[in-house]
Specification:
This protein is an alpha+beta fold. The protein has three helices and four strands; from the N terminus they run βαββααβ.
Length: 102
Amino acid sequence: MSKGYWIARIDVADMDRYQAYIATNGPPVAAFGGRYLVRGGTSHNPEGTMRSRNVVVEFPSYQAALDCYNSPGYQAAMAHRVPVSTADFLIIEGYAGPQPGA
């Protein structure tokens, strides 16, 4: 079974209020087996458009990624993010096929 991922690109308009989202999104992510691979950090944008914050969360399956996003716990956390940010948010199935050089 392929893993699932959240890939989010976010511009935060009010970082003080955004802290409530950061403080409340961890428990639902953990409940669905998610782990942060990228959570902010330094970035470089050689092509296309860029947002100020980038996040990648890995889940044990695509279904777990969907279920977490739709869970009451995450929806409550998201209510803190939406009013103070603009986001591109993808839920995507990982690739489990052959890799280069394999």
